[in-house]
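User: Can you predict the 3D structure of DegT/DnrJ/EryC1/StrS family aminotransferase? Sequence below.
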Amino acid sequence: MGFNYRMTDRQGAVGLVQLGKLDSLLAERQYWANFYLL
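Assistant: Sure. Here are the predicted structure tokens for DegT/DnrJ/EryC1/StrS family aminotransferase:
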């Protein structure tokens, strides 16, 4: 028995939208990391 790891069209569409938000998501993550660590 094998596995099917192929992405569906819907998953691909959601992934493309999330990639557009990547910079702001990483900036917010860094902000909160600095808030708690510094």
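The longest helix spans residues 22-37. Residues 1-38 form one domain.
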